[in-house]
Amino acid sequence: MFDGLSAKLTGILDRLKKRGVIAESDVDEALREVRVALLEADVALPVAKDFLGRVRERALGQDVLRSVTPGQMVVKIVHDALVETLGGAGEAAIQTGTNPPAAILMLGLQGSGKTTTTAKLALRLEKRERKKTLMASLDVYRPAAQQQLAQLGTQTGIRTLTPVLGERPVAIARRALETARREAFDVVLLDTAGRLALDEEMMDEAAAVRDAAQPIETLLVADAMTGQDAINVASAFHRRVGLTGIVLTRVDGDARGGAALSARAVTGCPIKLIGVGEKLDALEPFNAQRIAGSILGMGDIVGLVEKASEAVAKEDAEKLAAKMMKGQFSLQDMADQFRQLRKMGDIQGLLGMLPGIAKVKNQLAAANVNDRMLARQEAIILSMTGAERRNPKVLNASRRKRIARGSGTTVQDVNRLIKQFEHAAAMMKQAAKMGGRGLMGGRLPPGFGPPTFGR
Ligand SMILES: Nc1nc2c(ncn2[C@@H]2O[C@H](COP(=O)(O)OP(=O)(O)OP(=O)(O)O)[C@@H](O)[C@H]2O)c(=O)[nH]1
Ligand SMILES: [Mg+2]
User: Fold this and answer.
1) Contact 219/270 with Cβ under 8 angstroms?
2) Contact 211, 158 (CB under 8 A)
3) How far apart are CA 284 and CA 269, in angstroms?
4) pLDDT of 133-157, one tens digit each?
5) CATH level 3 topology of 3-85
């Protein structure tokens, strides 16, 4: 998401930054372009207008135009206005209250991702917050809907309420809460049925379930790909049932981003979570600063560091960093690093979080940096003997041929990897000489940086 908007905004602002002096007419011209970019990204018109008004006022109001770096200041103003539009700094946490069991009601149109998000959220609450969580499906309309949730329960190891044939949604909600009370659950997630479009029946049922369950959170699950429609649905639900937050799903897709940018401003409800993939760990807190940063190509360093530190065990990272400092980087370490990098998940996604990447994304795609490549490189190293890994100098032509066969690659692949290793090892030696300053200076090629992130 945001790729198109990001490319346009950074383009417009880059041009502004290059100028030494900025006149009011320059700002106006840039803002006209920003307006087009926002509307193309499907941002609601009133939201775009309000946003541009704020930026213009601040850009012209202060001493920005006479400042030493007017372009930079305008970028900062745009950034801050984006953060405000997205809901302000900080993350809106999912409440679980102090009086368990807390009910969390999941609402939304058909196929928006309610059931998947229910399982993702349950997993998050159990794993990160140590909340004992029960999931219950109130979807008695779609055949197999309850089975779908039960399956996700088996997959995640999270308890689901056993369905009772013929039981209605309100009764299921009551039984879920009774079960939770009896068995000391902290949280009950109520997954509801979706409809194709907004209709009275769905609203009535949502309201009835709300009255029965008294949820601490009523979350609307909305598909970011549906753009403005997602916002209209959110507004309607908010008026009728009262929402405490929005979960935007399919943020990993090529949605233009308008829904995310407009949701808060139009509905007054915070976006609390975003779904970023089909996998069950693909749910993240919504962070306005992070998103504003990534739209403006400032990179999502926080996200990268969080992801990296989760995937790479801290001691491993420290051990490896210490070795790197001493210039003792070996092929085995390199294989470990490839594995850790793969553990961090989708490499393209990871790279997208780095500063300035919007501009070079195509180059990256061309360079073909991806999971498969990492897996192959790891396989090459794993096909070496211990002695070869410790001392790559012994790798003559026949050994290289054997390794290529063993790893299902070509001799050229093996040669390339060894060159890459020698290059990396040389750089690490040099960095070690510099007291490690070079390591964090971002001079390492992709694939050799992350071990020090968790620290
Ligand atoms: N790429 C991507 N796919 C998602 C995301 N969230 C959900 N999905 C997919 O969307 C599809 C529908 O998800 P469900 O969770 O069944 O949607 P639902 O709202 O429960 O659907 P109904 O119960 O039929 O109304 C599934 O294939 C999910 O894997 C996301 O954040 N990213
Ligand atoms: Mg469902």
Assistant:
1) no
2) no
3) 17
4) 999 999 999 889 999 999 999 999 9
5) Four Helix Bundle (Hemerythrin (Met), subunit A) (1.20.120)
- Pick the atom of ligand 1 nearest to 139's CA: 23
Distance CA 48, CA 37 (A): 10
Structure tokens at 372: 């498969």
| Separation of alpha carbons 128 and 36, rounded Å | 41
Residue with tokens 């941002």: 43
Q: Which residues line ligand 1 (CB under 6 A)?
A: 108, 110-116, 139, 142, 145, 194, 249-250, 252-253, 275-278, 282
Tens of pLDDT, residue by residue over 15-67, are 887 777 788 888 899 999 999 999 988 898 999 999 999 999 988 876 666 66
Kindly give the number of the ligand 1 atom that is closest to the alpha carbon of 221.
19
Residue to probe by mutation, ligand 1, list 112, 116, 149, most atoms within 8 Å of CB: 116
Q: Give the CA radius of gyration of the chain.
A: 26
Q: Reduced to 3 states, what is the DSSP secondary structure of residue 246?
A: strand
Instruction: Tell me whether domains 102-296 and 303-452 share a fold.
Output: no
Q: Which atom of ligand 1 is nearest to the CA of 110?
A: 25
Question: In the chain, what is the greatest distance between 2 CA atoms, to the nearest angstrom?
Answer: 75
Domain residue spans of the chain: 3-85, 102-296, 303-452
Q: Is the pTM of this model over 0.90?
A: no
Tokens 């299921």 found at: 172
Helix/strand/coil percent split, the chain, to 5? 60, 10, 30
In the chain, which residues have pLDDT < 70?
A: 62-68, 298-321, 323-327, 340-371, 431-455
Q: Which residues of 344-372 are buried (b: 16+ CB within 10 A; e: fewer)?
A: bbbbebbbbbbeebbeeeeebeeeebeee
Cα(237)–Cα(232) distance, rounded to whole angstroms? Answer: 9
Which residues have CB less than 5 Å away from ligand 2 (the ion)?
114-115
CATH number of 303-452: 1.10.260.30
Between CA 70 and CA 59 the distance in angstroms is: 9
User: Hey, what CATH topology would domain 102-296 get?
Assistant: Rossmann fold (3.40.50)
- Residue 58: CB partners within 8 Å, gap ≥ 6? 64, 77, 81
Pairing of strands 159-160, 133-137: parallel
Place of tokens 């809907």: 145
Backbone angles phi, psi at 285, to 5 degrees: -65, 145
Residue 287 CB neighbours (<10 A): 23
Separation of alpha carbons 284 and 286, rounded Å: 6
Return the number of other C-beta atoms located less than 10 Å from residue 117's C-beta: 25
The amino acid occupying position 103 is A
